[in-house]
Design goal:
This protein has 249 residues and is an alpha/beta fold. It has helices spanning 19-30, 43-56, 71-84, 107-135, 155-175, 199-206, 217-230, and strands at 10-13, 34-39, 61-65, 89-92, 138-142, 180-186, 238-241. The protein is globular and about 55 Å long.
Length: 249
Amino acid sequence: MQKKKPIEPVILITGAARRIGAVIARLFHGKGYKIIIHFNQSAAEADRICKSLNNLRSDSCFLVQSDLNKPEGIDKIVDLIETIGRLDILINNASSFYPTPLKDCNEEKWEDLFSSNLKGPFFLAQRLAEMLIIARGSIINISDMHARQALDKHPIYTIAKAGNISMTKTLAKELAPNVRVNSVAPGAILWPEHESDDLDKQNSVLSKVPVGRLGTENDIADAVFFLAVKATYVTGQTIAVDGGSSNSL
Protein backbone atom coordinates (compact mmCIF):
# COMPACT_ATOMS: atom_id res chain seq x y z
CA MET A 1 0.00 0.00 0.00
CA GLN A 2 1.36 3.42 -0.96
CA LYS A 3 2.12 5.64 2.00
CA LYS A 4 -0.33 8.50 2.37
CA LYS A 5 1.22 11.92 1.92
CA PRO A 6 1.01 14.21 4.96
CA ILE A 7 -1.75 16.79 4.97
CA GLU A 8 0.43 19.29 6.79
CA PRO A 9 3.06 21.23 4.83
CA VAL A 10 6.61 19.95 5.30
CA ILE A 11 9.75 22.04 5.74
CA LEU A 12 13.40 20.93 5.69
CA ILE A 13 15.87 23.09 7.61
CA THR A 14 19.55 22.26 7.30
CA GLY A 15 21.74 22.91 10.31
CA ALA A 16 18.65 23.15 12.51
CA ALA A 17 19.88 21.65 15.77
CA ARG A 18 21.11 24.94 17.22
CA ARG A 19 20.99 28.70 17.05
CA ILE A 20 19.09 30.28 14.14
CA GLY A 21 18.09 26.97 12.56
CA ALA A 22 16.47 25.74 15.77
CA VAL A 23 14.47 28.96 16.16
CA ILE A 24 13.25 28.70 12.56
CA ALA A 25 12.18 25.12 13.28
CA ARG A 26 10.17 26.15 16.34
CA LEU A 27 8.50 29.02 14.49
CA PHE A 28 7.31 26.90 11.57
CA HIS A 29 6.25 24.09 13.90
CA GLY A 30 4.05 26.58 15.72
CA LYS A 31 2.45 27.41 12.36
CA GLY A 32 1.43 23.79 11.79
CA TYR A 33 4.33 22.52 9.67
CA LYS A 34 5.96 19.13 9.87
CA ILE A 35 9.66 19.74 10.48
CA ILE A 36 12.68 17.89 9.12
CA ILE A 37 15.68 18.82 11.23
CA HIS A 38 18.99 18.19 9.50
CA PHE A 39 22.21 18.14 11.50
CA ASN A 40 25.75 16.92 11.05
CA GLN A 41 27.50 16.80 14.43
CA SER A 42 25.07 18.33 16.95
CA ALA A 43 23.23 15.08 17.68
CA ALA A 44 22.25 15.78 21.29
CA GLU A 45 20.81 19.21 20.47
CA ALA A 46 18.95 17.86 17.43
CA ASP A 47 17.45 15.01 19.43
CA ARG A 48 16.38 17.40 22.18
CA ILE A 49 14.53 19.83 19.92
CA CYS A 50 12.90 17.06 17.89
CA LYS A 51 11.60 15.35 21.03
CA SER A 52 10.23 18.65 22.33
CA LEU A 53 8.37 19.29 19.06
CA ASN A 54 6.97 15.77 18.95
CA ASN A 55 5.80 16.16 22.54
CA LEU A 56 3.82 19.20 21.41
CA ARG A 57 2.42 17.41 18.35
CA SER A 58 3.09 13.75 17.72
CA ASP A 59 4.88 12.69 14.53
CA SER A 60 5.54 16.32 13.60
CA CYS A 61 9.34 16.25 13.55
CA PHE A 62 11.91 14.07 11.81
CA LEU A 63 15.69 13.93 12.20
CA VAL A 64 18.30 13.34 9.53
CA GLN A 65 22.04 13.31 10.15
CA SER A 66 24.28 13.84 7.14
CA ASP A 67 27.34 15.63 5.82
CA LEU A 68 26.14 17.96 3.06
CA ASN A 69 29.70 18.24 1.77
CA LYS A 70 29.36 14.70 0.41
CA PRO A 71 26.97 13.41 -2.29
CA GLU A 72 25.88 10.53 -0.06
CA GLY A 73 24.90 13.07 2.60
CA ILE A 74 22.48 14.69 0.17
CA ASP A 75 21.25 11.24 -0.91
CA LYS A 76 20.32 10.49 2.70
CA ILE A 77 18.15 13.62 2.96
CA VAL A 78 16.46 12.96 -0.38
CA ASP A 79 15.67 9.38 0.66
CA LEU A 80 13.96 10.57 3.85
CA ILE A 81 11.89 13.19 2.05
CA GLU A 82 10.81 10.70 -0.60
CA THR A 83 9.68 8.40 2.22
CA ILE A 84 7.68 11.23 3.80
CA GLY A 85 6.23 12.06 0.38
CA ARG A 86 6.08 15.83 0.46
CA LEU A 87 8.26 18.94 0.69
CA ASP A 88 6.98 22.52 0.65
CA ILE A 89 9.93 24.60 1.88
CA LEU A 90 13.71 24.17 1.89
CA ILE A 91 15.78 26.36 4.22
CA ASN A 92 19.49 26.19 3.37
CA ASN A 93 20.82 27.26 6.76
CA ALA A 94 23.80 24.95 7.42
CA SER A 95 27.08 26.84 7.15
CA SER A 96 30.74 26.79 8.11
CA PHE A 97 32.23 30.05 9.37
CA TYR A 98 35.77 30.73 10.53
CA PRO A 99 38.56 33.18 9.67
CA THR A 100 40.94 32.46 6.80
CA PRO A 101 43.48 35.30 6.57
CA LEU A 102 44.90 35.39 3.06
CA LYS A 103 48.27 34.01 4.11
CA ASP A 104 46.57 31.01 5.72
CA CYS A 105 44.20 30.14 2.87
CA ASN A 106 44.54 26.72 1.31
CA GLU A 107 42.49 24.39 -0.87
CA GLU A 108 41.20 22.40 2.10
CA LYS A 109 39.67 25.48 3.73
CA TRP A 110 38.37 26.69 0.36
CA GLU A 111 36.67 23.34 -0.29
CA ASP A 112 35.16 23.20 3.20
CA LEU A 113 33.73 26.73 3.17
CA PHE A 114 32.50 26.53 -0.41
CA SER A 115 30.94 23.12 0.14
CA SER A 116 28.86 24.16 3.14
CA ASN A 117 27.95 27.66 1.95
CA LEU A 118 27.46 27.12 -1.79
CA LYS A 119 27.98 23.67 -3.28
CA GLY A 120 25.90 21.76 -0.74
CA PRO A 121 22.90 24.14 -0.85
CA PHE A 122 22.97 24.17 -4.66
CA PHE A 123 22.96 20.42 -5.16
CA LEU A 124 20.43 19.89 -2.38
CA ALA A 125 18.10 22.35 -4.10
CA GLN A 126 18.70 20.60 -7.42
CA ARG A 127 17.81 17.19 -5.99
CA LEU A 128 14.69 18.47 -4.23
CA ALA A 129 13.46 20.72 -7.05
CA GLU A 130 10.93 18.24 -8.42
CA MET A 131 9.10 17.87 -5.10
CA LEU A 132 9.19 21.63 -4.51
CA ILE A 133 7.73 22.23 -7.98
CA ILE A 134 4.86 19.85 -7.22
CA ALA A 135 4.17 21.77 -3.99
CA ARG A 136 4.68 25.18 -5.64
CA GLY A 137 7.05 25.69 -2.77
CA SER A 138 9.84 27.98 -1.67
CA ILE A 139 13.58 27.94 -1.03
CA ILE A 140 15.24 30.30 1.44
CA ASN A 141 19.03 30.55 1.52
CA ILE A 142 20.70 32.01 4.58
CA SER A 143 23.42 34.33 3.31
CA ASP A 144 25.28 37.10 5.17
CA MET A 145 25.47 40.89 5.03
CA HIS A 146 29.17 40.43 4.28
CA ALA A 147 28.36 38.70 1.00
CA ARG A 148 28.10 42.25 -0.37
CA GLN A 149 30.98 43.77 1.58
CA ALA A 150 34.14 41.84 2.40
CA LEU A 151 34.67 40.77 6.01
CA ASP A 152 38.23 41.25 7.19
CA LYS A 153 40.23 38.03 7.46
CA HIS A 154 37.36 35.95 6.01
CA PRO A 155 38.01 36.04 2.23
CA ILE A 156 36.91 32.48 1.44
CA TYR A 157 33.71 32.71 3.48
CA THR A 158 32.85 36.10 1.99
CA ILE A 159 33.36 34.88 -1.58
CA ALA A 160 31.27 31.76 -0.91
CA LYS A 161 28.39 33.79 0.53
CA ALA A 162 28.53 36.16 -2.45
CA GLY A 163 28.09 33.08 -4.61
CA ASN A 164 25.16 32.09 -2.42
CA ILE A 165 23.36 35.31 -3.36
CA SER A 166 24.08 34.69 -7.04
CA MET A 167 22.75 31.16 -6.61
CA THR A 168 19.53 32.59 -5.17
CA LYS A 169 18.98 34.72 -8.26
CA THR A 170 19.87 31.87 -10.61
CA LEU A 171 17.61 29.31 -8.95
CA ALA A 172 14.77 31.84 -8.86
CA LYS A 173 14.93 32.02 -12.66
CA GLU A 174 15.50 28.31 -13.20
CA LEU A 175 12.58 27.25 -10.99
CA ALA A 176 10.07 29.98 -11.88
CA PRO A 177 7.12 30.12 -11.88
CA ASN A 178 6.59 27.13 -9.62
CA VAL A 179 9.17 27.71 -6.88
CA ARG A 180 10.16 31.02 -5.35
CA VAL A 181 13.76 31.38 -4.19
CA ASN A 182 14.96 34.13 -1.85
CA SER A 183 17.73 34.80 0.62
CA VAL A 184 18.04 36.34 4.07
CA ALA A 185 21.31 38.12 4.88
CA PRO A 186 21.77 38.39 8.66
CA GLY A 187 23.91 41.07 10.23
CA ALA A 188 25.13 41.01 13.84
CA ILE A 189 22.79 38.37 15.22
CA LEU A 190 24.89 35.93 17.20
CA TRP A 191 28.56 36.26 17.99
CA PRO A 192 30.72 33.50 16.53
CA GLU A 193 31.51 31.17 19.40
CA HIS A 194 35.24 31.83 19.06
CA GLU A 195 34.58 35.57 19.59
CA SER A 196 32.00 35.39 22.39
CA ASP A 197 34.36 36.93 24.97
CA ASP A 198 35.77 39.71 22.77
CA LEU A 199 33.88 42.67 24.28
CA ASP A 200 35.90 45.30 22.42
CA LYS A 201 35.01 43.76 19.07
CA GLN A 202 31.37 43.41 20.06
CA ASN A 203 31.16 47.09 21.07
CA SER A 204 32.83 48.09 17.81
CA VAL A 205 30.28 46.11 15.79
CA LEU A 206 27.31 47.46 17.73
CA SER A 207 28.47 51.03 17.24
CA LYS A 208 27.83 50.55 13.50
CA VAL A 209 24.27 49.20 13.89
CA PRO A 210 21.81 52.09 13.37
CA VAL A 211 19.03 50.50 15.44
CA GLY A 212 21.47 50.26 18.35
CA ARG A 213 21.07 46.63 19.31
CA LEU A 214 22.16 43.15 18.43
CA GLY A 215 19.70 41.21 16.33
CA THR A 216 18.04 38.03 17.54
CA GLU A 217 17.39 34.62 16.07
CA ASN A 218 13.70 35.55 16.04
CA ASP A 219 14.44 38.51 13.75
CA ILE A 220 15.88 36.08 11.20
CA ALA A 221 13.15 33.48 11.66
CA ASP A 222 10.43 36.10 11.12
CA ALA A 223 12.08 37.23 7.88
CA VAL A 224 12.40 33.64 6.70
CA PHE A 225 8.72 32.97 7.39
CA PHE A 226 7.69 36.14 5.57
CA LEU A 227 9.68 35.28 2.45
CA ALA A 228 8.79 31.59 2.46
CA VAL A 229 5.07 31.90 3.12
CA LYS A 230 3.70 35.44 2.90
CA ALA A 231 5.67 37.16 0.13
CA THR A 232 4.12 35.33 -2.81
CA TYR A 233 5.18 38.00 -5.33
CA VAL A 234 8.83 38.07 -4.22
CA THR A 235 11.54 35.89 -5.75
CA GLY A 236 15.25 36.19 -6.48
CA GLN A 237 15.73 38.73 -3.69
CA THR A 238 18.11 38.99 -0.76
CA ILE A 239 16.70 40.74 2.31
CA ALA A 240 19.21 42.20 4.75
CA VAL A 241 18.19 41.71 8.38
CA ASP A 242 20.99 43.67 9.97
CA GLY A 243 19.56 46.64 11.85
CA GLY A 244 20.60 48.93 9.01
CA SER A 245 24.29 48.00 9.19
CA SER A 246 24.60 47.45 5.45
CA ASN A 247 23.58 51.06 4.84
CA SER A 248 26.86 52.20 6.35
CA LEU A 249 29.15 49.67 4.64
